[in-house]
Structure formats: structure tokens, C-alpha cells
Fold each of these.
Amino acid sequence: MDYDSTSIPTKYRSARGLPAPTMRRWLSAIRRSAPLRPESRVADIGCGTGRFSVGLAEAYSSHVVGLDSSAKMLAEVSRDDRVSYCLGDALALPLRGGSVGMVFLSNVVHHLADLPKAAQGFAHVLGPGGFVVVRNYVREQLQGVPYLEFFPEAHAASVTALSSGREIRDAFRRAEFTLFSYRCIRQPVAASPIEYLSKVQSRVYSDLAEVSADAFEAGVARMTAAVSGGWNRSLREPIALFSFRKSLG
């Protein structure tokens, strides 16, 4: 998706930001998934507005390079002395070989045109024993995403766009990574159905941005009616967290 051709970047931080307790939970899980050596640098690929970049710098007491292909996303970042941001392509990383200890990708892999090629590039910029941590929706867990029951066209778009967990693992295995850890985190996304509806109405989810205006409005109408009628589904979205490790040799 070309985010610069959408209005998503200006709304992303407010609609997709994570409350402090949720962010702390993610950072704790990431640190367990990738126990880095002190002073190892981190590359946050597809960093968007930098919602994880600053947290990773704090969690690892390290310098983070945030890279994104969207100039509009980078215009919305939170500035921090421990984070450097740059415009770039995940398939042609502007980083020296062996210069980082971890590559982090949050909801990025389904936007990569060639994941196996990207994985090879990640291996190049990582030092021996370095990690790639992937936080992403996966195809087989879509039934657990609450808003998608109201948007069949968006569900179909996600089925097409997303990789399965096996496909992600296979792409990194072919680049000679080994799976270090895996877990699924059911992330709270809103405090109430009304708050969740407001988030969905902002249309910052990429699958919602892919459907027609008529399909989107019809889905919003269905969700609004359900919320008004007392819809009471668990407001958590399942997100996979993979950690892959490069050989020490």
C-alpha cells in the first residue's frame, strides 16, 4: 500500500496508538523474544509514525534506526535523540552489513513485495546471532479480529494480503534463520465498543482502506447497529510475535 496516497498517516498516531500498559506488555515480550547484547543497535523497519521506535530505544537502552517508505508517516514521528529516522525501502536497506543486533517489523511483512528477499537483506545487516522480530497479523487468526465480522470485503482483502504463520517461518528459514520463539498476544484495542467503532470509522486499518467507499459505509452501518444493540464481543485482536535468529557463525 502507498500510504502517501491516503489520509492514514495524519490519523495513525491517534487511532492506532497503544496505551502505556499495552506498550509495556509488548516491549516486555519483545525483550524476551530477542535478548540482545548491550549497546546493540536496533532497526525498526516500516516504523510508520515511530510508535515502537522510542519504546525500543528505552527497552534496550540502545540507538534505534527507524526506516519507512512513506514520507507522510515519517512527518508524524515522535522525535527522540535515541532514534534516527530515514526514508527507505525494506528491500534495499541503507544499513551496513553486520551493523545491527535486531531488525523489528510491526505489521509490515504483508506490505513487502518479496518477503524471502527481504529476509536475506535482514540477514546481511544483522551481526552474528542477531534477531528479526516480527509482530504481525497472520491469516489463520483473522476470525479473532472483531471488526472484520462487519466488513466481508476487508476480510477477503486481508485473506489475500496476509501470510500464514507457516509462510512467514518458511521465508526466514530459507534465509537461514532459525525460529527462536513464537507467541500470540491478544492485544486490547479499545476500552468500549463505542471507542472501537470510532477507531474503525477513522479507516486507518489498511484492509479498510482497500475496500470501496460503499463497502466501507455498509460495514460501518452494520457495526453501528450492532454496537447500538449491545454488541459485547471481547475487544482484543490476536497478533503473532515471531523471533528468528541468525547463525552465530
Amino acid sequence: MQKGWNEKVGSFVQCYGCEAVDASALLMVLTRFAAPDDPRMLATIDRIQKELTCDPHVYRYIPELAANDGFRSWEGTFSLCSFWLVEALARGGRLEEARLILEKMFTYANHVGLYAEEIGPTGEALGNFPQAFTHLSLISSCYNLDRALNEGLHR
């Protein structure tokens, strides 16, 4: 918690000592490592939304700013990360934001409701298809958003 938080940029970061934000930080909420209403987590979610999202789509990270993992060019947005964002927002009580992103993501499934690993700039399916991890995150985000809506966790 101490090394992963970067006070200078005001968010959790991809790796110790760096300034790059990474959508995988959303897992901190999903795994209950951090509370969804922790001010540091809220700041990280806001930064992810500002820097890594394009409407409902979420990039994992910005390659030019991130740790060198061998992928130095832009990929498509990751459907998995979009569903992680939905769930993190839902758990934090930001239900209208979560619902809107989820409803927009529904439009990117194919004719039988399946998702690819990534979505390209013109909405095309990229990467592995169908992607099991994406569908697990879809199920989890739907379950947690529905639970939050039924419990009235609105903010």
C-alpha cells in the first residue's frame, strides 16, 4: 500500500516508483485489497477514467509511460478492464456511472452475446475470441451492479 501509492500523481501506480496508472489497479477493489470508498482508490478510479478510458472502453495502460513489458505499441481496449471498472464503480456506490458503462459495453458483444479480448478503434473484435476471462468479469460486474442496485447503494 505504501509503495504502490504515488503521492505525486495521486493514484496507485503500475509498479513501485513509477507514475503510470494501470487499469489492473481496479483489482484492488474486486479482491477486497482496498475498500471501494478508500479516498486513494477513488482517486485511482478517477485517474483511470480520465487517462485510460474512451467512452466505455478501458485501455490497460499507456505504453509510452508504462513499465517495459515487451509491448511498446498501443493495443485495443480490453473488455475485461471495462467490466472491472463497472464492478469497481458499483462497489463504490457510483451506480449510474457503472450502469451506463455496462449498457454501452453490451453493444459490443456479437450476435450471440460473446466478447473478444479487445475492442479496436472502430469497434472491431480483436485478440482472443471468445475470451473466458472477459466473460467472467462480465458476470461478476453484472452480479455486483445488480446487488448494489437492489441494496440501494446509490451515491
Amino acid sequence: MGIMVRDENNQNEIPSIGRLFLRNLFIIIWPVEDIVLATSDQKKRPGDNVAKTVVVKNPNKSSKPLRILALIGVGIAFFMFVFFMAGNAMKNSDAYKVATKEIGQNKDILNETGGIKGCGMMPTGNVSISNGQGQAILEIKVLGNTKDLNVSVYLEKKPNGQ
């Protein structure tokens, strides 16, 4: 991005990993950091003050297309991570487990698919549970021996019930 973090007293020296870690710990309180940064005369984050670091322009900054590609790559990786984490959370829900158990016992689905090999990688829908009751609407791809099916499932949980 055309910037680099350096030691406050010697701008030719890269701070130790421990100091860089300490500097970035303060990102947890980023709203406070933004306010301090905007109002500070030194234009330094609290993390920079504690770690005794400064941010300076990098005279050897990389080419613009390379930086754009890096940003696009980070963006794609972030959205893939979120997408797969949401799918994994859905697959670990009790509603998904109940749904796949019921699908596996449904004679109509077993006949149409020629037997079930498994379920698709990413179920869609939502699961909402509050105070022991809730609803789940799921779309699950069922992988069959002869035919794959998309099965829609609606589940309702009553208080103190299944």
C-alpha cells in the first residue's frame, strides 16, 4: 500500500515481531484508535505509541496492478471464508442433523434418488431459535446413486420439545 512500519527512534529498523504484535493488539479497540488518531497532533495510533513505532511512506512501493491484485485476492479470500463458515455452522446445527436424518428415512426420496450417497456441501436457508423454540427453513442437495435432488425442509421447534 506504499507504507511501512518502522522503529520510532531509527526509521531504517524494522520493529521486532513482539512489538508489531503489541502494536496490532490495539486494533481490538479500533473505534477508540480512530478517535485518538483523528485528534492526535502526532497522528499516531495508541498501538504505535505503546510499541514506539511510526508509519512511513515506502520508497520502494510495489506496482499499482500488483497492489490491486493483492487487495482483490484478500477480498475473495475473506468472502470465501465467511461463506464456508456460514455453511459449516448450518451443517453443525441440530436442525440440519434432524433434517438429514429424516431425508435419509424418507421412502419417496430414497426411491427417486436410487439411494442416498450423501448431502451437498453447502445447505442454504436459515435457522432461528429463541427461548427454546424456533424455526428452520433449509434447502439441502441430496446426492443420489441415480439422481440428485434439491430438498426443501421446514422444521418447527416447540418450547421444551423436539
Amino acid sequence: MIDTHCHLAGEEFEADLPEVIARAKQAGVDAAVVILAAQDDVELTRWQRVRQLWPEARAAVGVHPHQAGAFATDPEAAARLLGERLDSVPDVRAVGEIGLDYHYDFSPREVQQAVFRAQLQVARDRRLPVVIHTREAEADTLGILGEGGRVETTGVFHCFSGDAAAAARALATGYYLSIPGIVSFPRASELREAVRTVPRDRLLVETDSPYLAPTPLRGKRNEPAHVVRVGNVIAESLGISSAELDALVSANARRLFRL
């Protein structure tokens, strides 16, 4: 199994990172995509330790929409910073997480959009996949991705938690959908139904750790080992074995992120 979205370089894992990685390996998690904030020098330094402890891990780097406001006067500065990080941070395989978040509106929406566009252009120029964060901003996210009449990037909608109709709209971009621990929540029946509509060659799994631990661990710190629980719930929804689910999502992750 591959956890395609986790924040292992965050401070939440600093005290027990070796044990967290050991538990992931023991659970059968072969690799992970670790999300890094382009403007966070401390997090980027922690990434070096993650790599030492887990050589199979790879990274994605970008300016999250929550931090887009730092580039309000010059959105292109976000693109320049991203380019510098892509050149200097080892083992980066994607741009992200980037996108729009209208739930918290920590950054003005027009600034989020400008920073999103600027980083998408970097991904196009570098031919890198994109890790999309979109919350209560679906129409604008899809609109920006499709500007010019077609989607010119590939990537993944991370932490997908919508219904079948939302899945269809996202899949129309050609992107993958990554399913988090929310799928295990008792009230997530619409998400489990949506999972059944996703083409199996575009399905991924993630923890988004330290957030969104699956049941029965909900409310506790999440970690990459728990992606196996997420996979088991999805396998049950699809009516296939956990081994089959592992094989298909791992193949998808390796293809998208060149793992």
C-alpha cells in the first residue's frame, strides 16, 4: 500500500518519527508521498530526516491556499519560490498541495486563484503532477484547471469526500481521486457509493495524516500505517480483496508519481 498524501515532515511527528515510520512499514505501507509547504524552511529541513528514515518516501511541494495571502501583492512570487524549491528539495515528484479553500477563507479568494494559476503553470512547465486541495470551491477549481479549453496537467484531487456526481466532475479532468479515512465514517455512505464509480485505474488512497484518522481511531492522531484501514474499507465497498485493492492503488500511485 502507498499513502499518497501525508504530512510526515510536520511538527506532529517530530518526537516519534522513527516509530511512526516503523509502524507504517510493519503494516505493509511501502512508500508515501509527503506534502511540504514551499515557504516553511523548518518543514523542508525535517524532510531530510524523513528521507533518511524512509528512503522510499517522495515529496510534493507547493503553496497551500491558506498561505496564498503572503503573496497577495505578487502572486508570481509563489511560482518563483516553487521553482526554487523544485530545484533544491530532493525527491520531489509533484506540485502540491495547491488549490482553493473557500471554507476558511484564510486568504482572499482572488489571491488564492492567482497563486493557484501561477503554480499550475510551473507544473505544466515542469511536467509534474498536481496535488489539488479544493474545499467548497469546486466550480472555481475546475474552471481554473480547464482554462484555455482543456486541462493541461495531470494529478490528483486529494482527500476526495464528495458524492458520485462530484466524482464524475472531478474525473472529467483526467485526474485521479484519492480517498481518505472519511470513507470509514458511519455517515459516509455517499462517499462509499462514489468510490464504486471511480475507474480503478484512477483510484488512490491516503491518510492526510496527522488529520482524519479512520474509524475506530477517529479523533486520534492519524499516521501512514492507517492507510491500510482506509484501503480495507474501500476494498469492501468494491467487493474485492484487500490484496487486490492494494495492488491496483499501488500501481496507480507509482504511475502518477513515478515512484
